[in-house]
Amino acid sequence: MTLQASSSSVKATTQNKGGLASISLSAGLMAAVLAYPLLLSSYQMDVARDALIFALLALSLDFLWGKAGVLSFGQAAFFGMGAYAVAIVGPMVPNDNGALAGMVTGIGLAVLVSGIVGYFLIYGGVRGAYLTIVTLALTLIARNVATSWASVTGGEAGLIGAPPPGLSIGGWSVTASDSVSLYLVVAIVLSVTLTALWAASRGRLGRVLTAIQDDEAKARALGYDTSGYLLAVFVLSSGLAAIAGGLYASAAGYVAPDLVGLLLSTQAIVHVAFGGRGTLIGPVLATVLVIHVQQEVSSFSYALWPLLLGAFFIAMVFLFPKGLLPLISDLVHRLVPRRDRGGTA
Amino acid sequence: MSTPLIEADNVGVRFGGLVAVAGVSLSIARGEICCIVGPNGAGKSTLFNVLTGTVKPTTGRILIDGKNFSGRPVHAFARRGVARKFQAPSIFSSLNVGDNLRVAQRQGSDEIHLGEILGLLGFSGMADAPAGTLSHGQKQWLEIGMALVARPKVLLLDEPTAGMGPEETMHTVRLIQEIASRAAVAVIEHDMEFVRELGVRTLVLHQGRVIAEGGFQEVADDDHVRDVYLGRG
To answer: Taking CB atoms and an 8 Å limit, are A220 and B130 in contact across chains?
Structure first.
């Protein structure tokens, strides 16, 4: 009997080459997006910085949702843990290490909570929509804690006085308190995280996570502790959300209960869906784009933005459900003749 | 015969009031192939589920390499060398052929062994093909390859020729015979042509019990087996 390699393997090779081209394209785009705000006014730089922080939040969700297939509404809860930890623990620590100490506390708290909740859920066999619903509850609980435990969290008013990012060892110390250095700190954290997640997803881990998304029972039968993988990704993603929250509090200097709301979780989900689930860089670029457009539209008419966003989202579900980045790469594949692509890649 | 690689010792499985498997004993040694046949609902797949740890036996023990594995999780069975091919072809369709095998390799990466498996399956040069685009028969072979690439001690194949044409079925017979030199193999199959061609020790299950055991011809001549299969009982 003969089995022919058919055209499918040929197609796969061109896809790989297309992949290489799109990697360099996205890296260049990313660099441009990160560098551009440095030319702007300090106010606009602050807005861009917050956009990058929300991009980090979207990235943390995409690693969980896109790579491991777990849709979570809990990102805001972990974001809030990071933010509140910096605002509460930060001012207690002397020198310039407050933000760092708060950040470590926030990450620890997020890892602990996601580890405990995730352990019982994931090892208990809870998957899909059921898991999503529990993460929804997590954010609602966190929101309640933030508003009700006023003696610690400041209640509805929130807390001011979160220290800026800094480091002090012995007599030497450095803080990032002006717009440029704050922006750079955030941009560096985001780039490092994006690169690390991207690299991790390319190798064995990415393969195993894809396999789990395709058929978890089969992956388990092959000897993988699939619950362990999902839990690890869940905990890592929560820790990253806490870092984003910590950066936000540290850069803005205050926290408010809005940061823990369901709205923030939903926003992250929209950004991931818009950018392209599982593409990692897509949600980052989408967040920056959406926040930029939001600003432009809101300055024109405040009521217009939610209407526009809603309409856009509905259109997206019908026209390009996989998100923006896959749409662009589809268009590139269609517009650029096959021969040209093979030659240049 | 050497010590069996996998042994079911008087295994029983009960789902509520339903007895799916009742006191089945079975042992398979290296280099041995054992065929399990029986009508629908006889308990074949449940027996496989017990042998791979997916279902915990209500009574009895499962020994792998002489060690008791009853009640251990699925991945512990897999790490001990028990590999399984499911009834419906279950491959990772988002990954390509090579990555399917790499995921199945689990520990380390041995691209040379991977190449050998690709050759054995007749998939040379197809490592980059998306697994989702394979034909039904090719998916079945890929799944057998995924079981093989981890160098299993025990390979359990649940209806490996389901949906295959006669030519593909014969290729599968040769593949299984090739595999048996490296592992203990158990096969569930409905296709009697396939079982005859394989010509190995055959176990007939009916209503959760072993009603006959022996060489294919011996079992095929058994009156009780004929009754069960032809519905005269």
So the answer is: no
